[in-house]
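Handoff note, outgoing to incoming analyst
You'll be picking up this chain. Sequence as last confirmed:
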Amino acid sequence: MKSAPIRKKSNGLQRPSRVGLLLLWLALAVTGCRGLLPGTAPPAAKEETPTLRPAEPSPSLSPPATATAAPMMAPTTTATAVATVLPEETPTAAPTTAGEQVLPAPLYYLREGQIMRLEIDGVTVTQITNEASPVTDFDVSPDGDRLAYVSDNDLIEADADGGNRVIKVGGEVYGEDDTAARITQEISHPRFSPDGGRLAFGLNGVNLMPAGEGADDYQVIQASDPYPDAGDLPDDEPIRFFWPSAWSPDGGRLLLEFAYWPEAGGLAIKDLNGGGLVDVTNPDSIVVGDWAWGPNGQAAFLASNALVYGAPGLVRVDAATGESTTLVKGLPNGEASADKPIRLFRAPHVTAGGDLAFFVRFADSMEDAGAEGYRMYRSATDGSGMAPLRDDAFSLGTALWAEDGSGAVVVEAGHNERYPPAGPMLWAPAGAGPVVELAADGGRPQWGRAVAQTTGRIPPSEELASLATEFLATLGLQEQDGIREAHVVRLDTADGPQWLAHTIGLRSFEPLQRHTIAIYRYNSGKWVEQARLAFAEGGEPGTPPGPDYVGENGVRQVSIETAMTWMAVDGGVGAHGGTFHLLRYDGESITVALGHGNGFPGVGRVEDLNEDGKEEVILDNSEAYVFCYACGVRLINYDVWRWDGSALAPLTLTPLPETDPAASLNNRAVALAQAGLWKQAQTLIKQVEEAPPKEEAVAWNAALINLTADGRKRAVEPFPLLGHVFYGDYAAAVNAIRAYEPSQIFSRESPLVMGTPAEGWVEQLAAYLQRASERALDAPELGDEHRAAATFLRGWAAYLTEPAGAGALSNVERAAELAPDDRLYTESSAYLRQ
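Most recent structure output, in case you need it:
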């Protein structure tokens, strides 16, 4: 344990104002990040392949799609595209009056060097501290009863009203120009543990001490590296200076920020139970930004708007390893534009309903990346289903979310480059409702003691917990029924927050059950049902089956357009089949907009395919029974639907008029794809996409071709011979044959079949090879190498179908004519002539 240092004051030394460390804060004005930027030798922000993949239609080999689109009336208002940049103005703020509840709890904040408290009416302000020197940082205990703050380089603890002030650690005075002393002696970043029993703070590293009046000792849990001697700089390990940032909800971990010497920085996670320190890493350079712990402390979310020393995006961090998974990349693949904007993320928050809330800005270029234009969004915690919660835009300095995600306090960005950002504050509800201008102007907002909410449209937690029970009671369930549970999901609608309850589990068939969903509004302390849907059984033409099984996370809100509320439902059917339903809610009824079923799980998803901020529906129409389900060989196909401004419409490959400058390459790529030559089509469409002028039809063709091409490339295993044929790479398919002699190839017991997934399925193998090769050979763009390979494979397919027939020899001889120097073709031709 380390005792608090004795304080040494001097009238000859002026206490400096709190400016950052060396040059470390300079990049914050550029990126708007909450913490320091990473790395003395950071990876450059690279051009990135989008996390959300593009999409594509089914070729003629695919079975008929089971997806059906229900007819739909055009909405009375024009749908607002998610990525549309509205005028970047401060939202119109509604006035408030004293006594009216606006905020979910009192709000503490810093103003002109003192801690202030704003009451829940958004109007009444009280000054809490009266320190002679400015308060530089503070925290509020989880129960709202205590404050910890730093003033005049002292760590101070006090009651929530500023009384019972106790100096916990007395800091040393240092000179304005003494950089080394400032870095090693400054006290900063007090942070209460989740149970309120401990305080973490920065002082030449990260330190812990008991909270409360009596404690005056602290323990160093992560020391900073020694400040370097300018004449003896290390040349191997980087020098880092640490301070605490955020406790995990269980109190077992602590997020640390660190600064490199002489500039930049990053994030690390300290395991307080002996697990050591791990740096936050990401393969896409998304390593700095705003942080939000997940509810159990095992994972966290990082939202970044960094354009230097990192990259923008949204990631999920494994707290044990520090390794993160990219959920949404912020940089488009290629040059940014209005159609392919940069996505800048800020202020993530995991809501009580299990969603991820955050702010995002769509920028047309690196230069168009300021603080203005941030919008409130939500998504699932895997980054899918990004949907706007509000249409207005904010000049965002920072944001503090309500615990339940019902809204956020927005600190508007100022022009004084202060850190933390300070400025006028607004209360922005998540969903419908006016933005409220608060009687607060400052920075570093923190919630005080929460106020129980008994009225209004946001229910108390105990009422929210009762909704599943109330919904189940309406279903008349019997003891023998399979469905016994329900799950509740928050919906953000144009008319404010509502809640969807849906059944979960495996339904019974005697008596027959149907999975059901219902949407409720909370009004005057009661749940009021708005709409209900029980899934149909299916079986009729164009009607996919309803799900037999729905999991707890099987229903989620997605963003198709903003006039209505859209939901995706993933289910299971039969032994291993899957279902997907896209539902729409117009405020009065729930209807099925799209339905799809297939013989495997995960048959549909909603993604932003072309990075324009709008989401499309991808239905997996692949064949899982090329041979048998357990054989694992699949023919990958997709159907894609998009909102065209008035209805859902299928996307198809589109040739351009011959007068269009891009027509030649585009139309050749489309023809190659339609012939099943996906590898060559993907290479060609990339050339079209990268060449000006940029055209919407070309962008969609690229998205569609890339989706199927990438899918088929990934599915080459476990039977490469046929997998390469499905991918359109006939030369690679023939290369899988070259290791064998003609007598082994042209045999009913061929090792190309025996012991492979095709064993026992020779007729099916021959049929697929025959159909695919004939389609490829009809394509004028097929080069001689692939034409010879496709002809040879057609000959082998003919042999498998009829060994004594003439088709095998004629095709193999033609392959030898096309490639006379290829020994496989010439030797096979000679063998068959024997």
